[in-house]
Write a structure and sequence with these properties.
Elements (H helix, E strand, L loop, with lengths): L4 E3 L2 E6 L4 E8 L6 E4 L1 E7 L4 E7 L10 E14 L5 E13 L2 E10 L8 E3 L8 E3 L30 E4 L6 H12 L6 E2 L4 E4 L6 E4 L2 E2 L5 E4 L7 H12 L3 E2 L3 H7 L2 H10 L7 E5 L11 E5 L9 E7 L2 E8 L12 E2 L4 H18 L3 E9 L2 E8 L4 H8 L3 H26 L1
Parallel strand pairs: 1-11, 3-10, 4-9, 12-13, 12-17, 17-18
Antiparallel strand pairs: 2-3, 4-10, 5-6, 6-7, 7-8, 8-9, 14-15, 15-16, 19-20, 21-22, 21-24, 22-23, 24-25
């Protein structure tokens, strides 16, 4: 039989959809609905889709650590506290995570900032197969407030932006995380399916059409697709650049990163250590539209060790995860938190940052292997799994992406204003 899921009178949990990787909760079976300490509660959205934005300070005594959360409103209820006071509270629904288990819970937004526990877990959140042992605590895996230590901090946003997310998968965890962080910071992030777009290419009035209608002005665009995007996808990003939109990853950089031979040439030409590669014709007699190639490199002879994948945003590596040594059959590697020290990671981080700058990617995952010859860049992609990195490292990559876009848009606006003044 499966072991029972036992809760102590206090437990650690995560609320991943709210951007809260660790919060300590008191299990309160006397309360029907769970509650979380919320301040600066602001109703947004529409009457058809009411939403609420609020601030959580998850660490008691640390008001400098704030997380802005965004959630759909499912109800509003009159709640009477233990001291007899009644208040009307918003009710939201989100995922709770303890260890390997996730389940949806309803939470009311309450003013609990003076309480020792920033969250109460009510009896509705305790499922039928769960048991509460009030004589014990922390029966489930414990978390740590250090998860908030590397969060990106920035000045308040000066103006709201429209940041388009080009993707065919709005339900993707990384896409949902980007949208949530953009909205928390006051921006709009429409998800646009590139299959609905068409281009009008002209010197006078180039345009992008959505279902035949002109696309509304876009401040910035994030393109999320596979490792080798199609020519039309690149053309969409390039057309947006022509229209003055900031591309997190420009079309030319995406094309370079998606071509294995070009990528190795660029990195090697910039003095970045890569495995030596021999590129030879592959059965030229059968190559109808051009020459096919096969890559044979020296990676095996160099004694490649564990591979570190660095997430680089705006030229800065913000986190690293690790997998086992590269093998020819390893098509779906499992990634894990790396145990290398800061000094051991420094050389790989520097190499990853230089590689991303060389190709011109504002957001990249750079794979570095620690071989006998030293660290080598073996691959790079613009299709970064933000949710995976955040889960394994605790670094808020999605927020880093939005902050980088904010700063770059602002810097471009300042340069444009100065150029106008000089004219």
């Amino acid at each position: 039989m499966q072991d029972p899921f036992v809760l102590g009178w206090e437990e650690w949990l995560a609320l991943p959809d709210l951007g809260l990787p660790a919060i300590k909760a008191k299990i309160d079976t006397g309360a029907r609905t769970s509650a979380i300490a919320a301040s600066a509660v602001e109703e947004i959205g529409t009457p058809e889709l009411p939403r609420v934005r609020f601030v959580v300070r998850p660490i008691p005594g640390r008001d400098d650590v704030e997380v802005t959360c965004l959630a759909d409103v499912i109800d509003q209820r009159e709640v009477t506290s233990s001291n007899g006071e009644t208040e009307r509270r918003y009710v939201i629904r989100t995922l709770a995570r303890m260890g390997e288990r996730e389940w949806p819970i309803d939470i009311t937004l309450a003013n609990r900032n003076t309480m020792a526990y920033r969250m109460l877990l009510g009896r509705q959140a305790v499922k039928d197969d769960m048991f509460v042992d009030p004589a014990t605590s922390f029966r489930q895996p414990q978390l740590n407030y250090r998860a908030y230590g590397s969060a990106v901090r920035s000045e308040p946003v000066k103006r709201a932006l429209t940041i388009a997310l080009l993707s065919r998968r709005p339900e993707n965890a990384s896409n949902r995380r980007l949208v949530r962080l953009a909205e928390q910071r006051g921006h709009a992030m429409p998800i646009i399916d590139r299959r609905r777009l068409s281009l009008y290419i002209a010197a006078a009035e180039p345009a992008i059409l959505v279902n035949g209608l002109p696309l509304e002005p876009i401040d910035a665009v994030i393109f999320r697709a596979g490792k080798s995007p199609s020519h039309f996808s690149l053309a969409i990003v390039r057309q947006m650049e022509i229209l003055g939109t900031l591309a997190l990853n420009q079309a030319d950089a995406l094309a370079k990163a998606g071509d294995a031979i070009v990528l190795r040439q660029l990195l090697a030409g910039a003095g970045i250590a890569v495995p030596e590669v021999a590129v030879n014709p592959k059965d030229m007699s059968r190559a109808a539209g051009g020459v096919e190639h096969v890559l044979a490199d020296s990676l095996g002879a160099l004694g490649a060790g564990p591979v570190l994948r660095f997430a680089v945003v705006g030229g800065r590596a913000l986190g690293a995860i690790e997998r086992a040594a590269v093998t020819a059959l390893d098509q779906s590697p499992e990634w894990q938190t790396t145990e290398y020290t800061s000094s051991q990671l420094a050389a790989g981080r520097k190499l990853a940052e230089k590689a991303a700058r060389t190709v011109g990617l504002g957001l990249a995952a750079v794979d570095v292997t620690l071989s006998r010859a030293g660290p080598l860049v073996i691959d790079m992609t613009a299709n970064v799994s933000l949710s995976q990195f955040e889960r394994l490292t605790g670094v808020s990559l999605a927020e880093a992406v939005i902050v980088h876009i904010e700063r770059t848009v602002e810097a471009r606006a300042l340069l444009k204003a100065r150029a106008a003044e000089e004219r």
